[in-house]
Amino acid sequence: MGADGSGHPRNDPGPPLAGRRPAAVAVQAPKPQGDQSHITLNDEQTANVKAIIAATKKAGLPERAAVISIATSLQESKLENLGHLGDKNDHDSLGLFQQRPSSGWGTPEQITDPEYSTTAFLKGLKQVDGWQDMPLTVAAQTVQVSAYPDAYAQWEQQATDLVAQHWNS
Q1: I need a surface site. Which of 12, 31, 119, 146 has the fewest CB within 10 A?
Q2: How far does CA 141 lie from the centroid of its chain?
Q3: Pick from 76, 55, 75, 56: which is nearest to 64 by CA?
């Protein structure tokens, strides 16, 4: 599986924007874009949703950040904390967000810790000027730099529903 969950490689720039500050995109959000996908979650995936929400709250960020994070993880790993996948792996991508140790996201142990990997993703998201108001796929792509940037959009409705269901639980 590729780092973006599509079976295709991504162009991973390294850890959260590594000192770069992308320009703000003047567009309105958060209306889901395009056709939406949905998967049935098992207990592990639901626990990972709750871990992403807990890390988002701990970081002091709003529900929108959790929606972007969960949609990104749905695309990257289907909310599964993936270890090394051998020949099916995109380089050395690991965890919920398919982050790469070789690109500076952290050690394999850190990246496969849901709180750590979510915090690393959120650190990158916070560096994106205007992320709160841009389409989910633009915000996620700015952090993740996927070879398939529009793929994140298909998970926005399910991510929104999951945050609504678990934010206060």
Answers
A1: 31
A2: 9
A3: 56
Q: Phi, psi (5° rounding) for residue 94?
A: -140, 160
- Dihedral in degrees, nearest 10, Cα atoms 64, 13, 150, 95: -60
Does residue 6 surpass a pLDDT of 70? no
The mean of the pLDDT values for the chain is: 83
Buried b (16+ CB within 10 A) or exposed e, 52-63: bbebbeebebeb
Q: At residue 147, does pLDDT exceed 80? A: yes
How buried is residue 26: exposed, middle or buried, by Cβ count under 10 Å (0-12/13-18/19+)?
Answer: exposed
Q: Is the pLDDT of residue 159 over 70?
A: yes
Cis peptide bond N-terminal to 30, omega within 30 = yes
Which long-range CB contacts under 8 A does 55-64 form with residues at least 24 apart?
55/114, 55/115, 55/118, 55/119, 55/122, 56/118, 56/122, 58/115, 58/119, 59/119, 59/122, 59/126, 61/122, 61/125, 61/126, 62/132, 63/163, 63/167, 64/29, 64/30, 64/132
pLDDT greater than 80 at residue 65: yes
Q: Indicate the helix (H) or strand (E) that contains 142.
A: helix 136-144
